[in-house]
Amino acid sequence: MRFKNILQSRYGGLLLFSLIFITLSFLIRTILLIGDFQNTDPGLIHIFQIYLYGLFYDLVTISYFIIPFVFYLLIVPDRIFSSKIHKWISYVFFIITIGILVFSGIGEWFFWEEFSVRYNFIAVDYLVYTHEVISNIRESYPMPIIILGMLLLSASIFALVKKHFDKSINSESRFVSRLKLSLILWLIPLLAFYSVNKSTAEIMDNTYSNELAHNGIYQIFSAFRNNELDYKAFYKTIDNKEAFSHLRQLLKTSNSEFVSDDVFDITRQITYTGENKHYNVMLITVESLSASFFTRFGNTNNITPNLDSIALQSLFFTNFYATGTRTVRGMEALTLSLPPTPGFSIVKRPHNENMFTLGNVLKSKGYANNFIYAGNGYFDNMNYFFGNSGYDIIDHKDFSSDEITFENAWGVCDEDLFAKATQVADSLYKKGQPFHNFIMTTSNHRPYTYPEGRIDIPSHSGRNGAVKYTDYAIAKFFREAKKHPWFENTIFVVVADHCASSAGKTSLPIKKYHIPLIVYAPAIITPGENTTLASQIDFAPTILGLLNMDYKSKFFGKDILLDQPNRALLGTYQKIGLLQHNQLTLQVPTKRTEAFQVDNLEQQTTKLNQEELRDAITYYQTASYLFHNKLYNFTEE
């Protein structure tokens, strides 16, 4: 059937929609490419690949998008299809559909500006947690102007194609002819469902280019579909018994003994000489605190003056890495000491109750644990996870009106959050109970708003101001804490949940995972700088080491101060890596591997080392096995 004949048939509306879809996708891809051109390979072949692969994913997305419309066009008889009422109903639906495409395109531009990627798991979260997200968007962008522009653009597009759309509505057709074409149009998405995924057409050597080549709408549905990736199906494996036998070697430390000969049981008895110290632990997990914000790592904007000073009075870990690019990934690593298994964070998954967490270990030793959050902890399933991991929950609902001086879409400002943490600490101190507070800040998050008059950068002016305000609030918290009787017996920790940006030219840009870890306790810990390569999974064992606490452990992490880990585990929801011996070994669906030589946070492609790959497979395969077989749960001693 010729193009003109299809355009004038009742399926002409689908053809018009497809052309509009491809055109808008081409425009948004071009706009994003121009905005990030310096991060892509400017070669003509590379640019050609971006648009060719982009067209491929656009067509696949269209095939999914039109499934219900094809069904509708098949069953509606001609007398209804060509009626005046149906004509106006079709106008409305066609304009709405165009509006969805325009809205998606505008949304992708803002999403790229924030994360430098197409829609992904984060966008899925944005669809689920509408209150926080809509409030954040309203506070961050001039929405009335954006909506007006979107409506005008949608109306203009419809006006351009209305003449052709009318011809398709006034056409006549036989059911048998419609059935043949409908079956063909259904066969395409069916084949795509079983044969196409995010990795089907990839530009191997540049992550920015890969993201540009993808289609945002396809990506968001792919994220829904792949919220958890089966390790065996998507990644290289070895025999489970071999993996656990090797894991035991990797986890063995100078002060640990395995409690069982069962190779699948990684429980160890951890022993320290001397008495348990019973120090309090105040963990301040800072939203998006990249190491690159610090003067120590070359920043010249003076946006962390207080933390720069505090670091000099602390035990400062300068070769420390986040395990992921989301807050829940940081929470997962800091509490579970477990590698980042592919898919959604365990914090968000079902069956995550009573796992082996720092909270449960401390609770068994008589500690009171609190998860203290500035916003609504139902977001990202945080309250459920922490509430079933040995922590009591304190979030926005627990702040009285007189305790809130400023708030935005994500919750109360950091000053108010720290004031609440101080109040909680006072209460527990009066009870004579040691405590661990997991404090999660939010002020360093778009829309970057905070109380005026605190720092020399106006609120709502960008990331630098938000970082500097958080720096100010932490220093204020420490000054206030010094006035309280529990201060000298408390270990304060400042660590990031993840970096401010995760995008880079390579699959896992190491520099976008580099974060600070500051352990501040003037009466307890001698200041110094520790350069051991480690990551967030090493936090819990290191803190328990500072407490001199004997305990049974299933943690994958190590006490950095006793047995240097000299490795970091990090990933995205699909790509998982092991940084070790200046080499990043990467596993990618489906069962592919990459390797990079790392020098001063810069990386270049190198030959895969089989021993490094074996270590990487061991860490991730066993972590997945333990979670899915409920072998990483907490059992009272």
Automatic annotation (TrEMBL):
Substrate binds at residue 445. Residues 280-548 form the Sulfatase N-terminal domain. Mn(2+) binds at residues 287, 327, 497-498. The active site is at residue 327. GO terms for molecular function: metal ion binding. It is found in: Cell membrane. The chain crosses the membrane at residues 12-35, 55-76, 88-112, 141-161, 181-197. The keyword Kinase does not apply. Pfam families: Sulfatase. Keywords: Cell membrane, Manganese, Membrane, Metal-binding, Transmembrane, Transmembrane helix. This is Alkaline phosphatase family protein. GO terms for cellular component: plasma membrane. It is a multi-pass membrane protein.
